[in-house]
Each structure stands twice: as structure tokens, then as C-alpha cells.
Amino acid sequence: MSISLFAMPFSLRQGKWNHLEGPGCFVCRVSWDQVAHPQLVGLWLGSIGWILTMVTIGMVQWRLWVVADMSVVSSGLAWVGIWRVCFYSHTVVTSQRGPLYCQKMDISDRFIPKEIAVAQVLMLLALVLGLLANASTLYGLRNVFFGLDERRPIRVAFTAGGLLHLLSSLCSLLPLSLNLHAVATNQNISFPENFHMPPTPLQQYVGVAIRVGISAAVLTIVSGVMFLCYQFPVRAHARVEPSWAEESSSNDPSAGRPHYFRPYLACRDNPAFQSQEHV
């Protein structure tokens, strides 16, 4: 006796049937993890966006200043970040960084313009919100792939994670836009004397950090939208009704077995398939 595996429902072959509804009738359901693959990509994009946001915060290349006086700024180029200002100098040298001279900036400093002060606060807030968003979406995916049948925890986790991702991207885009506008309008900064920086540069250019931050915000937005668009699958019921009467004789090969296996164990060999196998 041979049993055709392809005669069984796909969900039964995958071991994803749940319970029975009468003799010889299988009630199958669509597994939720089959439709959660876009959200898995969303978690990956959100994690990359969060890492790039952290890199953006630590970078000093937010604004590139071109200065005229090269007596102190040897290369004529200075990098203005949200936490410090750096440039190469052969006149002012620090033992820690060698020819790279850096001065830290704090939010309590009076000379700091509003775009830098806002960036110091909102970029850190975006980092915290992104971390919470990734944790929430990871919890939701854990419930999906572990087969949790309750929809409410999954929906709450994905919705909260998506909203936190969008809020994190908003907190990043606002200071990035302000600094981008400051570069475009060539706004000045009244640095103190110990910074050895002129108040106004000859030219300003957009630094690498702003580009990285915008890329991170875009990835975070895409991730948030993907989690907010998650839809639960419709439960599908696949029925297999036997067209023969179940025999209760002692020579029944399905005797002693659960009744939901009897329709398949009662299958008979098809002579047509056997004749093809001998050819």
C-alpha cells in the first residue's frame, strides 16, 4: 500500500493542522509567519537605521567650513559637528590627537546656535525611540514566529513599533533640516577665542554626517510604514471528505489509529501509477 504525499493538504504536509471537525475532516489554518516576512525585512531596516543614527550622532562632519586664515587652520578646512569642532593645525597641537585640534561644545554654551542645540537633544531622543521601536517590533515578531494565537499583543507591538519608528525619524529629520538650512544660507557661529575659529566661513558644505542621518531617517520611515501596514491572514479551512465508508473490520489497516488518519491509510494503490513505475 502506498500513500501519496501530494494528496494531502499542503498545511497538513507542513504539520500545521490544528484540530478536527467531524470524522475525516481536517480543519487547517494559515500560519501567521507566512505573511510576516515583510515585517522581518522591516526589523532589519529599522536596525540599520538605528545604527546609522548612532553613527551620525558621533560624527563631526556635519558642516564643512572653508576658512581664509590658514595660520592656525593649516588645511583651511574645519569640521563643525554637534558635539565638537575639529581641524588640522601645525600651530595649535594637542598631545591626545596630534595635529587634529578639537574643542567640545555643550548645550549650556551660549555661543551655540539653535540648530546645534536642537540637534544635541533630538538626535539623542531619536536614538532612544529607535531602540524602543526595535524592541517592540522584535517582541511582535517573536509572538508571530512562536505561534501565539492572540492577535492583540502582535497588533499592539507592531503598531507601537511603527509609530515609534516614525517619531524617531521625525526627531532626526528636524535637526538635520535645520543644519542643512544653516549650510545653505552660510550662517555664522560666534566661537570663543580658544576655538581658534572665525565667526563666518568663506563657504560651507554639507558634511557626510547629514547625508548619513538622512539615509537613516529614510530607512526608519520605511520600517515604520511596513509594521503599520501589517495585516493578519484570513483563516482558511481545507476539508477532505472521504467518499467511502469507513470499515470497522479487524483487517482494516487503520484499526487502532486516530480517526483523522483513516482517510489516508485507507487509500489503495493506483494501478496506473504502478504500471508507469515498471516501464
Automatic annotation (TrEMBL):
Q: Which residues cross the membrane?
A: 41-60, 116-141, 162-184, 204-230
Entry's localization field: Cell junction, Tight junction; Cell membrane
Keywords of this entry:
Cell junction, Cell membrane, Membrane, Tight junction, Transmembrane, Transmembrane helix
**What are this entry's molecular-function GO terms?**
structural molecule activity
> Where does it primarily localize?
other
**Domain of life of the organism encoding this protein:** Eukaryota
Q: Which Pfam families match?
A: Claudin_2
Q: Does the keyword Lyase apply?
A: no
GO cellular component terms, semicolon-separated:
bicellular tight junction; plasma membrane
Task: Indicate how the chain sits in the lipid bilayer.
Answer: Multi-pass membrane protein
Q: Which family does it belong to?
A: Belongs to the claudin family.
* Protein name, UniProt field: Claudin-34-like
Which species does this protein come from? Alosa alosa (allis shad)
